Amino acid sequence: MAGANEKTINEWLHRPQIREARFQAKQFAPYFAVLWYATDREPPPGLGKLVEELQGPPVGHIDVDGLTLLVPHPIDGKGLMALHASPFRANQVAKLPTGTAFKSDLEFFAEAYAALRAGNYAAAVSEFDAMAEHYPIEDHPLGYFAYAAAKTGDKDHLEKCLYSMPGYRNFDYWLAHAYFAGMRKESEAARDALQKAFKLRPSTDNRPILSEYQYAEAFEWLYHDTEDSRFRIDLLTWLKAVQVMQPTQAWAYAMEYSYAPTGPDKTRALAITRYLDPQSARIRGASNEELRTADAWFQANNPFRIPAPSSTPVRATRLEPEGHL
Questions:
Q1: How far apart are CA 148 and CA 132, in angstroms?
Q2: Which of 74, 204, 205, 277 has its Cβ near the most Cβ atoms within 10 Å?
Q3: DSSP state of 281
Q4: Chain segment 5-47, per-residue pLDDT in tens
Q5: Segments of the chain scoring below 70 in pLDDT
Q6: No. of H helices and E strands in the chain?
């Protein structure tokens, strides 16, 4: 709401009291950095570098077998937890010298996501592929990996690998299937996969991007890739639901403004976005006439204002036993 720019946000994230804020071993600032730049923003090319700055030097290192990655335990950060390659890269990982430092999974993800959003799908695939060699990718990275892979011809056969992973029928698995189907213009299969994903949508918890936003992204990207208007309709329906569940999430109104037909809903969406997030990337192209109309609507209909007390006296009503009025 304050309209903070990139410089202000980055300076705030680097403040010692913000950068060191954590619960158990989880540090909040690097996750917030990804969340901020992913949600209705244009991720900078150096998003992975920003995550690295906030996290500090790599803490993961290769064990004596040359394959296992040891990272601080997520509960207390004192003990070590062993991680292994994703099934997608199992038995294909080259051994590394014992003690080799390894960047975090969040840094990998930030680099890959920023490349994907910039349209550099080959770079995104490369980053996700490197991540899969030592980290599991079967939750939030999987859908994005699949989208980038589908955009580049899936040369490493990620889609085929999905069918050999029967234990991973989760939200991200079905997003991945939707993206592969969408790239082949198989709208029905993609919509069916999204319905299955919806039934398994997780709370955000340790995910660096809101699962609500991931689901909206899927509709948006599939609409552009298939040119099937049903994805736009599905997206608008989902955004209305998010606005009810989370009425102060600006991105849901900003997305609605981008895809709603000209009319009252589009005006309302623009008005609320301007109030909640004046720096929203999606409303930068709004015309002066649209802005004037939206501001007038908000002045008269601000849904976040406490209603003024009614001047009409309230008449007390005596309750009578049942059967009497």
A1: 14
A2: 277
A3: G
A4: 999 999 999 999 999 999 888 899 999 999 999 999 999 999 9
A5: 166-167, 310-325
A6: 15, 6
Contact call for residues 73 and 25 (beta carbons, < 8 A): yes
pTM for this entry: 0.90
Which alpha helices (DSSP H) does the chain contain, by range?
Answer: 6-13, 16-19, 28-38, 47-55, 105-117, 121-132, 140-151, 158-163, 171-183, 187-199, 211-226, 229-245, 250-259, 264-276, 288-301
d(CA 228, CA 238): 16
Dist. CA 83–CA 63, nearest whole Å: 10
Non-local CB neighbours of 120 within 8 Å, separated by 6+ positions: none
DSSP string computed for 168-210: --SHHHHHHHHHHHHHTT-HHHHHHHHHHHHHTPPP-TT-SS-
Query: Which of 122, 19, 132, 32 minimizes the C-alpha distance to 85?
Result: 132
| Tokens (6 digits) for 147 | 């989208």
**Are 35 and 13 contacting, i.e. CB atoms less than 8 angstroms apart?**
no
Element containing residue 299 per DSSP (H, E): helix 288-301
Taking CA atoms, 310 is separated from 305, 306, 317, in Å, by 14, 12, 18
User: In angstroms, rounded to a whole number, what is the distance separating the alpha carbons of residues 92 and 76?
Assistant: 32
pLDDT of residue 311: 60
